[in-house]
Design brief:
This is Histidine phosphatase family protein. Helices cover 26% and strands 17% of the residues. With 224 residues, the protein is of the alpha/beta class. A six-stranded mixed sheet has the order 3-2-4-1-5-6. β5 (189-195) and β6 form a beta hairpin.
């Protein structure tokens, strides 16, 4: 039943879930590359999110086409007994440096002069998909999910940068930012509250916080 009654506005929640930890021992920026899967800890994170949202009034699920996102969605969809729509608009941002290492070693993309041209304008950014383009596709996906779950809740599994850009867009903040300061850790949930189709609030939760590696900042992971 819709939450709309008489003159009361229709309240709909859309939850953007970042996928769990990926098995990536060589520190590759995996971007949109295939065959990058959740680690054991990542699967535990996905299970934790599924437990966290069980009982919520979620009626619609959609997911990035990448494996790590679909693997995070799997226990959620099972717990909620709902079908999942694959939505290419919530995929990871395009990055020209995908496949390269970002682990601080001598072979890191940061230390190779041939890659420096990609870092010439971090405000754009020149290493990949423009922030504005990410914002446009995420805004459309959020609106469609809200429409599909009108009066209830929707959940989308996506990736760190698209989720963060969606939040900056809604909050009217500048897209240029320090990646290390994104509030979007692994398996986190960023929730957008819609009233009659208009976003009025954003909230944030970390249901798998205790599963994060001790002493490591998880706010920025290459290719996440």
């Amino acid at each position: 039943m819709s939450e709309n009654s008489g003159d009361n506005p229709t309240r709909t929640l859309v939850h953007l879930v970042r996928h769990g930890e990926v098995h990536n021992p060589t520190g590759v920026l995996y971007g949109r590359l295939t065959d990058f899967h959740l680690s054991d800890r990542g699967r535990a994170m996905a299970d934790r999110v599924a437990e966290y949202v069980t009982g919520w009034d979620i009626t619609h699920l959609r997911c990035s086409p990448l494996e790590r996102a679909q693997e995070t969605m799997k226990p959620i969809a099972t717990a909620l007994d709902l079908p999942v729509s694959i939505d290419g608009r919530v995929i990871e941002a395009e990055n020209y440096l995908q496949g390269k290492r970002f682990d601080g070693s001598r072979n890191s993309a940061f230390t190779n002069p041939r890659n420096w041209r990609y870092f010439r304008n971090p405000l754009k950014p020149t290493w990949g998909e423009p922030y504005k383009q990410i914002a446009i596709r995420m805004r459309a996906a959020l609106a469609d999910a809200a429409a599909a779950a009108q009066g209830h809740q929707a959940l989308i599994v996506s990736h760190q940068l698209p989720i963060w850009i969606a939040r900056l867009d809604v909050e009217g903040r500048r897209f240029a930012h320090d990646p290390r300061k994104r509030e979007c850790t692994l398996a986190s949930i960023t929730t957008f509250t819609f009233l009659d189709g208009r976003i009025v609030a954003v909230s944030y939760a970390e249901p798998a916080a205790e599963l994060l590696p001790a002493g490591k900042s998880q706010k920025f992971v290459a290719g996440a």
